[in-house]
Protein backbone atom coordinates (compact mmCIF):
# COMPACT_ATOMS: atom_id res chain seq x y z
CA UNK A 1 0.00 0.00 0.00
CA UNK A 2 2.81 2.41 0.93
CA UNK A 3 4.61 1.64 -2.33
CA UNK A 4 1.43 2.37 -4.28
CA UNK A 5 0.96 5.69 -2.50
CA UNK A 6 4.60 6.64 -3.06
CA UNK A 7 4.40 5.80 -6.78
CA UNK A 8 1.16 7.75 -7.09
CA UNK A 9 2.72 10.78 -5.38
CA UNK A 10 5.72 10.66 -7.72
CA UNK A 11 3.50 10.51 -10.78
CA UNK A 12 1.45 13.43 -9.50
CA UNK A 13 4.60 15.47 -8.83
CA UNK A 14 6.01 14.74 -12.30
CA UNK A 15 2.70 15.71 -13.87
CA UNK A 16 2.62 18.96 -11.92
CA UNK A 17 6.13 19.84 -13.05
CA UNK A 18 5.31 19.04 -16.66
CA UNK A 19 2.23 21.24 -16.63
CA UNK A 20 3.75 24.10 -14.61
CA UNK A 21 3.11 27.52 -16.08
CA UNK A 22 6.01 28.59 -18.26
CA UNK A 23 7.50 31.95 -17.32
CA UNK A 24 9.31 32.35 -20.65
CA UNK A 25 7.59 32.32 -24.05
CA UNK A 26 9.62 31.25 -27.08
CA UNK A 27 10.21 33.99 -29.66
CA UNK A 28 12.48 32.04 -32.00
CA UNK A 29 14.56 28.88 -32.09
CA UNK A 30 17.55 28.64 -34.45
CA UNK A 31 19.45 25.49 -35.33
CA UNK A 32 21.82 24.47 -38.12
CA UNK A 33 21.44 22.05 -40.99
CA UNK A 34 23.63 20.36 -43.56
CA UNK A 35 27.37 20.53 -44.11
CA UNK A 36 29.19 23.45 -45.74
CA UNK A 37 32.66 25.01 -45.70
CA UNK A 38 31.04 28.33 -46.74
CA UNK A 39 27.78 28.42 -44.78
CA UNK A 40 24.91 30.74 -45.71
CA UNK A 41 21.23 31.27 -44.88
CA UNK A 42 20.45 27.82 -46.26
CA UNK A 43 22.36 26.29 -43.35
CA UNK A 44 20.03 27.62 -40.65
CA UNK A 45 16.55 26.56 -39.59
CA UNK A 46 14.45 29.05 -37.60
CA UNK A 47 11.06 28.41 -36.01
CA UNK A 48 8.83 30.46 -33.74
CA UNK A 49 5.97 29.72 -31.36
CA UNK A 50 4.33 26.40 -32.06
CA UNK A 51 7.01 25.40 -34.54
CA UNK A 52 5.82 27.87 -37.19
CA UNK A 53 8.50 29.34 -39.51
CA UNK A 54 10.09 32.56 -38.19
CA UNK A 55 11.02 34.42 -41.35
CA UNK A 56 12.45 37.71 -40.06
CA UNK A 57 15.72 36.24 -38.79
CA UNK A 58 18.76 36.53 -41.08
CA UNK A 59 22.28 35.22 -40.56
CA UNK A 60 25.61 36.56 -41.80
CA UNK A 61 28.52 34.12 -41.51
CA UNK A 62 31.93 35.77 -41.21
CA UNK A 63 33.59 32.41 -41.80
CA UNK A 64 33.63 29.06 -40.09
CA UNK A 65 31.76 25.99 -41.28
CA UNK A 66 28.69 23.86 -40.68
CA UNK A 67 29.25 20.13 -40.25
CA UNK A 68 26.60 17.60 -39.26
CA UNK A 69 24.21 20.36 -38.15
CA UNK A 70 26.77 22.15 -35.96
CA UNK A 71 28.31 25.58 -36.61
CA UNK A 72 32.07 25.77 -35.93
CA UNK A 73 33.05 29.44 -35.55
CA UNK A 74 36.74 28.61 -36.18
CA UNK A 75 37.92 32.04 -34.99
CA UNK A 76 35.19 33.96 -36.80
CA UNK A 77 31.67 34.97 -35.81
CA UNK A 78 28.07 34.57 -36.91
CA UNK A 79 25.84 37.66 -36.77
CA UNK A 80 22.10 37.08 -36.40
CA UNK A 81 19.71 39.97 -37.13
CA UNK A 82 16.03 40.03 -36.20
CA UNK A 83 14.19 42.59 -38.37
CA UNK A 84 10.93 42.03 -36.45
CA UNK A 85 12.34 42.32 -32.95
CA UNK A 86 9.84 43.54 -30.36
CA UNK A 87 12.25 43.28 -27.42
CA UNK A 88 14.68 45.78 -25.94
CA UNK A 89 16.71 46.07 -22.75
CA UNK A 90 13.65 47.55 -21.04
CA UNK A 91 11.97 44.14 -21.33
CA UNK A 92 12.43 40.87 -19.50
CA UNK A 93 13.84 38.15 -21.76
CA UNK A 94 16.08 35.07 -21.85
CA UNK A 95 18.75 34.02 -24.35
CA UNK A 96 19.87 30.38 -24.58
CA UNK A 97 23.05 29.18 -26.32
CA UNK A 98 24.25 25.58 -26.59
CA UNK A 99 27.97 25.49 -27.35
CA UNK A 100 31.01 23.23 -27.18
CA UNK A 101 34.20 25.08 -26.25
CA UNK A 102 37.32 24.17 -28.19
CA UNK A 103 40.30 26.10 -26.89
CA UNK A 104 41.36 28.94 -24.62
CA UNK A 105 43.79 31.83 -24.77
CA UNK A 106 46.88 32.63 -22.76
CA UNK A 107 45.15 35.05 -20.37
CA UNK A 108 41.48 35.67 -21.26
CA UNK A 109 38.93 33.75 -23.23
CA UNK A 110 37.57 35.69 -26.20
CA UNK A 111 33.86 36.51 -26.49
CA UNK A 112 31.61 33.44 -26.69
CA UNK A 113 28.43 35.31 -27.67
CA UNK A 114 26.79 38.72 -27.49
CA UNK A 115 23.53 40.66 -27.67
CA UNK A 116 23.23 44.12 -29.20
CA UNK A 117 20.84 47.00 -29.77
CA UNK A 118 20.59 49.17 -32.86
CA UNK A 119 22.54 52.00 -31.26
CA UNK A 120 25.64 49.75 -31.12
CA UNK A 121 25.39 49.16 -27.37
CA UNK A 122 26.02 45.51 -26.63
CA UNK A 123 26.41 42.95 -23.90
CA UNK A 124 29.03 40.22 -24.27
CA UNK A 125 29.71 37.02 -22.36
CA UNK A 126 33.32 35.90 -21.96
CA UNK A 127 35.60 34.08 -19.54
CA UNK A 128 38.44 35.70 -17.61
CA UNK A 129 41.34 33.64 -16.34
CA UNK A 130 43.84 34.39 -13.62
CA UNK A 131 43.25 35.40 -10.01
CA UNK A 132 39.67 36.53 -10.67
CA UNK A 133 38.77 33.67 -12.99
CA UNK A 134 35.15 33.44 -14.00
CA UNK A 135 32.45 34.04 -16.57
CA UNK A 136 31.49 37.68 -16.89
CA UNK A 137 29.16 40.13 -18.57
CA UNK A 138 31.31 42.51 -20.61
CA UNK A 139 29.27 45.59 -21.61
CA UNK A 140 29.91 48.22 -24.25
CA UNK A 141 27.78 51.31 -23.64
CA UNK A 142 25.78 49.76 -20.82
CA UNK A 143 26.46 50.61 -17.18
CA UNK A 144 26.50 47.54 -14.94
CA UNK A 145 26.94 47.37 -11.18
CA UNK A 146 26.91 44.74 -8.43
CA UNK A 147 28.76 42.28 -10.64
CA UNK A 148 29.39 38.84 -9.15
CA UNK A 149 31.11 35.95 -10.89
CA UNK A 150 32.32 32.42 -10.22
CA UNK A 151 34.49 30.26 -12.41
CA UNK A 152 31.79 27.70 -13.14
CA UNK A 153 32.74 24.42 -14.78
CA UNK A 154 34.72 25.04 -17.96
CA UNK A 155 34.70 21.80 -19.91
CA UNK A 156 36.53 21.51 -23.21
CA UNK A 157 35.01 19.41 -25.99
CA UNK A 158 31.61 18.94 -24.32
CA UNK A 159 28.40 20.73 -25.21
CA UNK A 160 27.25 23.11 -22.49
CA UNK A 161 24.22 25.34 -22.03
CA UNK A 162 24.60 29.07 -21.41
CA UNK A 163 21.49 31.04 -20.46
CA UNK A 164 21.28 34.80 -19.95
CA UNK A 165 18.15 36.12 -18.25
CA UNK A 166 17.26 39.82 -18.01
CA UNK A 167 14.65 40.45 -15.31
CA UNK A 168 13.04 43.90 -15.41
CA UNK A 169 10.59 42.98 -12.66
CA UNK A 170 7.65 45.33 -12.21
CA UNK A 171 9.27 47.77 -14.67
CA UNK A 172 9.05 45.33 -17.59
CA UNK A 173 8.37 47.31 -20.75
CA UNK A 174 8.98 50.69 -19.16
CA UNK A 175 12.04 52.51 -20.47
CA UNK A 176 14.49 54.19 -18.08
CA UNK A 177 12.49 53.23 -15.00
CA UNK A 178 14.09 51.01 -12.39
CA UNK A 179 16.94 48.60 -12.92
CA UNK A 180 17.13 45.09 -14.39
CA UNK A 181 18.86 42.05 -12.94
CA UNK A 182 21.08 40.03 -15.27
CA UNK A 183 21.93 36.41 -14.52
CA UNK A 184 24.17 34.00 -16.43
CA UNK A 185 23.58 30.27 -16.02
CA UNK A 186 26.00 27.52 -17.02
CA UNK A 187 24.37 24.08 -17.20
CA UNK A 188 21.61 25.27 -14.88
CA UNK A 189 23.91 26.87 -12.27
CA UNK A 190 23.85 30.64 -11.75
CA UNK A 191 27.48 31.74 -12.14
CA UNK A 192 27.32 35.51 -12.77
CA UNK A 193 24.95 38.35 -11.91
CA UNK A 194 24.82 42.09 -12.53
CA UNK A 195 22.48 45.06 -12.30
CA UNK A 196 21.69 47.12 -15.40
CA UNK A 197 21.31 50.86 -14.80
CA UNK A 198 17.90 52.42 -15.39
CA UNK A 199 19.43 54.93 -17.82
CA UNK A 200 20.36 52.02 -20.12
CA UNK A 201 16.84 50.61 -20.21
CA UNK A 202 15.68 52.20 -23.46
CA UNK A 203 13.39 51.19 -26.30
CA UNK A 204 16.24 50.60 -28.73
CA UNK A 205 15.47 47.27 -30.38
CA UNK A 206 17.38 44.19 -29.28
CA UNK A 207 17.94 42.99 -32.84
CA UNK A 208 21.54 41.74 -33.13
CA UNK A 209 22.95 38.51 -31.72
CA UNK A 210 26.39 37.00 -32.31
CA UNK A 211 27.98 33.61 -31.84
CA UNK A 212 31.74 33.33 -31.49
CA UNK A 213 32.33 37.07 -31.16
CA UNK A 214 31.02 40.50 -30.20
CA UNK A 215 28.03 42.15 -31.92
CA UNK A 216 29.91 45.22 -33.20
CA UNK A 217 33.56 44.82 -34.19
CA UNK A 218 35.33 41.69 -35.34
CA UNK A 219 37.80 41.27 -32.50
CA UNK A 220 38.16 38.82 -29.60
CA UNK A 221 36.47 35.93 -31.40
CA UNK A 222 36.07 32.54 -29.71
CA UNK A 223 36.46 29.19 -31.44
CA UNK A 224 33.50 27.03 -30.45
CA UNK A 225 30.86 24.76 -31.91
CA UNK A 226 27.25 25.92 -31.65
CA UNK A 227 24.23 23.67 -32.09
CA UNK A 228 21.23 25.73 -30.97
CA UNK A 229 20.19 29.29 -30.05
CA UNK A 230 16.86 30.39 -28.56
CA UNK A 231 15.29 33.70 -27.56
CA UNK A 232 12.43 33.87 -25.05
CA UNK A 233 10.23 36.75 -23.97
CA UNK A 234 10.16 36.83 -20.18
CA UNK A 235 12.43 35.22 -17.59
CA UNK A 236 12.71 31.46 -17.79
CA UNK A 237 11.40 29.56 -14.78
CA UNK A 238 13.64 27.25 -12.77
CA UNK A 239 11.91 24.29 -14.42
CA UNK A 240 12.56 25.67 -17.89
CA UNK A 241 16.22 26.35 -17.11
CA UNK A 242 16.66 22.80 -15.81
CA UNK A 243 14.93 21.31 -18.86
CA UNK A 244 17.02 23.34 -21.32
CA UNK A 245 20.36 22.79 -19.58
CA UNK A 246 22.89 20.10 -20.43
CA UNK A 247 23.48 18.11 -17.22
CA UNK A 248 26.94 17.77 -15.76
CA UNK A 249 28.54 14.34 -16.47
CA UNK A 250 28.27 13.36 -12.80
CA UNK A 251 24.58 14.26 -12.70
CA UNK A 252 23.93 12.38 -15.92
CA UNK A 253 25.73 9.32 -14.53
CA UNK A 254 23.66 9.45 -11.35
CA UNK A 255 20.47 9.67 -13.40
CA UNK A 256 21.47 6.63 -15.45
CA UNK A 257 22.42 4.75 -12.30
CA UNK A 258 19.03 5.58 -10.80
CA UNK A 259 17.21 4.30 -13.87
CA UNK A 260 19.29 1.12 -13.84
CA UNK A 261 18.50 0.55 -10.16
CA UNK A 262 14.81 1.07 -10.83
CA UNK A 263 14.93 -1.45 -13.67
CA UNK A 264 16.63 -4.03 -11.41
CA UNK A 265 14.05 -3.53 -8.69
CA UNK A 266 11.25 -4.10 -11.20
CA UNK A 267 12.89 -7.35 -12.31
CA UNK A 268 13.03 -8.79 -8.79
CA UNK A 269 10.44 -11.53 -8.25
CA UNK A 270 7.61 -10.67 -5.92
CA UNK A 271 7.79 -12.38 -2.50
Describe this structure in words.
The structure is a single chain. The protein is α+β, with helices and mostly antiparallel strands. It has one domain: Jelly Rolls (Sandwich), CATH 2.60.120.200. It has three helices and 16 strands. The strands form two sheets. Strands 1, 2, 4, 5, 7, 11, 12, 13, 14 and 16 form a ten-stranded antiparallel beta sheet that branches. Strands 3-6-15-8-9-10 form a six-stranded antiparallel beta sheet, with no helix packed on it. It is globular. The chain starts with a helix and ends with a helix. The model is unreliable at 1-22 and 249-271 (pLDDT under 50).
From the structure above, extract its key features.
271 residues, alpha+beta, Jelly Rolls, ten-stranded antiparallel beta sheet, six-stranded antiparallel beta sheet, 3 helices, 16% helix, 38% strand, globular, disordered N terminus, disordered C terminus
In short:
It contains three helices and 16 strands.
Instruction: Write the element-wise H/E pattern from the N-terminal end onward.
Output: HEEEEEEEEEEEEEEEEHH
Indicate the CATH class: Mainly Beta
Tell me, what's the shape?
globular
CATH topology: Jelly Rolls
Q: What percentage of amino acids are in beta strands?
A: 35-45%
The percent of residues in helical segments reads 10-25%
Uncertain spans, ≥5 residues at pLDDT below 50? 1-22, 249-271
Q: Please outline the major beta sheet.
A: 10 strands, antiparallel
Q: What is the strand tally?
A: 16
Total DSSP helices: 3
Task: Please indicate the count of domains.
Answer: 1
The overall average pLDDT, rounded, is 83
Named at the architecture level, the CATH assignment is Sandwich
Distance between the termini: 15 Å
Amino acid sequence: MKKTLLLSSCITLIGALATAHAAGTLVWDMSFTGTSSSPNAGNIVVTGTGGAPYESLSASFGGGSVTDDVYNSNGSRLTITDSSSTLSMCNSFSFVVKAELNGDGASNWPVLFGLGESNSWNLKVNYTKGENAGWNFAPEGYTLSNLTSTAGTVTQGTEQTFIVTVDAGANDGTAQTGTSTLTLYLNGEAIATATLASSNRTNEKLDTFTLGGRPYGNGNNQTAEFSNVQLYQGVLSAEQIAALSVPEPAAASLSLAGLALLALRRRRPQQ
